C-alpha cells in the first residue's frame, strides 16, 4: 500500500506532465499542477504559475499548501524549446530555455525543500531528456539545460540525503506527444530507426517511472538518472 502524498507537478497541463498527474491521481495521491494556461487532468488542482517568476510560483505553492498541506513530492517538468543551430541561436533563445528548464527547476525545488526538510521526507524528480547526455544538433540550449539537471540532482542528494529526501532525474527519449506527432513522417522514421526498441514511448510509460521513483519503495535511490528511452541513450 503506497502512502498518500501531496504531489506538485510543474507544467502539468499537457504531454508528459499531464500523464504524470493522471498516474499519481490513479494511485490515490493529492495532486496539484502548475500551468501558464490550460488545466491538468480532472481531479487535480490546477494553479496558474510561471516557473520563470518566483513570486507567481510562491503564490501557487501557498494555494496548494492551504488546500492539501505541505508538498511531499515535487516533479519539475515545465520546459520549453527554442531549437536552431548554434550559429543562428540568439542570446535570448539560449537564455529563455535555460531560465525555464534549469532555473525554473531550481526555483521549484527550492520552494518545496523547506517543507520537506521540516517533514524529514521528500521526493524531488527532475524531468530531463535523453538529449541532455546524448546531444542533439539544433538543441545546444535545450540539451545544456537538461544535462545541468543531473548535477543539480546529485548536489541536492548530497545536501538533503540525510533528511529522508531523494533527488532523481528521469530522462525520457522520444515520446508520443503533440510535439513528436507534428514532425514530418521521414523524420519520425529516422528517429524510430535509431531507437533499439523501434518505437516511441507513451507518456504513461514515463509517468509510471516517475510515480515509482517517488514511492516509498524507492527511498534508497538518489542522484540517479533513469532513462526511459527504449535504449536510445545507452552508455551516456
TrEMBL record:
Residues 5-178 form the Ketoreductase domain. InterPro entries: KR_dom, NAD(P)-bd_dom_sf, SDR, SDR_fam. The keyword Oxidoreductase applies. Keywords: Oxidoreductase. Its EC number is 1.1.1.100. One of its GO terms (molecular function) is 3-oxoacyl-[acyl-carrier-protein] reductase (NADPH) activity. It holds the Pfam family adh_short_C2. SMART domains: PKS_KR. Belongs to the short-chain dehydrogenases/reductases (SDR) family. PANTHER family: 3-OXOACYL-(ACYL-CARRIER-PROTEIN) REDUCTASE, 3-OXOACYL-[ACYL-CARRIER-PROTEIN] REDUCTASE FABG. This is 3-oxoacyl-ACP reductase FabG.
Amino acid at each position: 500500500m503506497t502512502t498518500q502524498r501531496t504531489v506538485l507537478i510543474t507544467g502539468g497541463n499537457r504531454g508528459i506532465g499531464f500523464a504524470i498527474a493522471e498516474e499519481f491521481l490513479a494511485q490515490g495521491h493529492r495532486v496539484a499542477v502548475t500551468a501558464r494556461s490550460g488545466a491538468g487532468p480532472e481531479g487535480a488542482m490546477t494553479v496558474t504559475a510561471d516557473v520563470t517568476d518566483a513570486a507567481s510560483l510562491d503564490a501557487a505553492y501557498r494555494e496548494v499548501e492551504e488546500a492539501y498541506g505541505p508538498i511531499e513530492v515535487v516533479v519539475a517538468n515545465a520546459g520549453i524549446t527554442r531549437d536552431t543551430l548554434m550559429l543562428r541561436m540568439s542570446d535570448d533563445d539560449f537564455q529563455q530555455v535555460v531560465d525555464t528548464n534549469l532555473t525554473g527547476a531550481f526555483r521549484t525545488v527550492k520552494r518545496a525543500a523547506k517543507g520537506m526538510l521540516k517533514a524529514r521526507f521528500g521526493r524531488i524528480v527532475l524531468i530531463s531528456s535523453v538529449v541532455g547526455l546524448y546531444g542533439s544538433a539544433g538543441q545546444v540550449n535545450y540539451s545544456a539545460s537538461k544535462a545541468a539537471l543531473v548535477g543539480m540532482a546529485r548536489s541536492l542528494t548530497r545536501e538533503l540525503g540525510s533528511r529522508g529526501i531523494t533527488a532523481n532525474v528521469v530522462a525520457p527519449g522520444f515520446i508520443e506527444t503533440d510535439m513528436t506527432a507534428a514532425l514530418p513522417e521521414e523524420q519520425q522514421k529516422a528517429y524510430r530507426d535509431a531507437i533499439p526498441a523501434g518505437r516511441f514511448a507513451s507518456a504513461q510509460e514515463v509517468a509510471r517511472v516517475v510515480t515509482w521513483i517517488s514511492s516509498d519503495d524507492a527511498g534508497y535511490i538518489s542522484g540517479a538518472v533513469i532513462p526511459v528511452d527504449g535504449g536510445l541513450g545507452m552508455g551516456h
